[in-house]
Amino acid sequence: MITAIVLIHADVHQIPETAQAVADIPGVSEVYSCAGDVDLIAKIKVRDHEQIAEVVTGRINRLPGVTHSATHIAFRSYSSSDVEGGFSIGEQ
């Protein structure tokens, strides 16, 4: 599976509706509303790169309320146990 993180700028008056519309798109596994530089962050999990294009440019970017997005492809995921294990190498 390919994971992509999509940073979404939305019309401030439509954030809850836009977030729900994004969450309802097949391939979107999670959507977070946040404070800071972006309004929403969506996590996408699909089988191939073509599906990322379908989800982002074909669906997310066409939603009412979405004003801009930036997509980041994940190369590797780390869990807390992976990170903790990396820092404990050589410790006894």
Key features of this structure:
Transcription regulator AsnC/Lrp ligand binding domain-containing protein, 92 residues, Alpha-Beta Plaits, alpha+beta, 27% helix, Tscrpt_reg_AsnC/Lrp_C, Dimeric_a/b-barrel, four-stranded antiparallel β-sheet, 3 helices, sequence-specific DNA binding
Structural overview:
The protein contains 3 helices and 4 strands, in the order E-H-E-E-H-E-H. The protein has helices at 15-23, 49-56, 80-87; strands at residues 2-10, 28-33, 40-46, 66-73. The longest helix has 9 residues, at 15-23. The protein is globular. With 92 residues, it is an alpha+beta fold. The protein has one domain: Alpha-Beta Plaits, CATH 3.30.70.920.
- Report the principal-axis shape: globular
- CATH topology description: Alpha-Beta Plaits
- Head-to-tail CA distance between termini: 36 Å
CATH homolog superfamily? Lrp/AsnC effector binding domain/regulation of amino acid metabolism (RAM) domain
How many separate domains make up the residues? Answer: 1
Strand content: 25-35%
Structural class from helices and strands? alpha+beta
Order of helices and strands: EHEEHEH
Strand tally, please? Answer: 4
* Poorly predicted runs: none
Number of contiguous helices = 3
> Mean pLDDT, nearest integer?
91
The CATH first-level class comes to Alpha Beta
Q: What is the gyration radius calculated from CA atoms?
A: 16 Å
Main sheet: which strands, in order across? Answer: 2-3-1-4
Biggest β-sheet strands, sense, barrel: 4 strands, antiparallel
What is the CATH architecture annotation? 2-Layer Sandwich
Q: Determine the fraction of residues in helical runs and give it as a percent range.
A: 25-40%
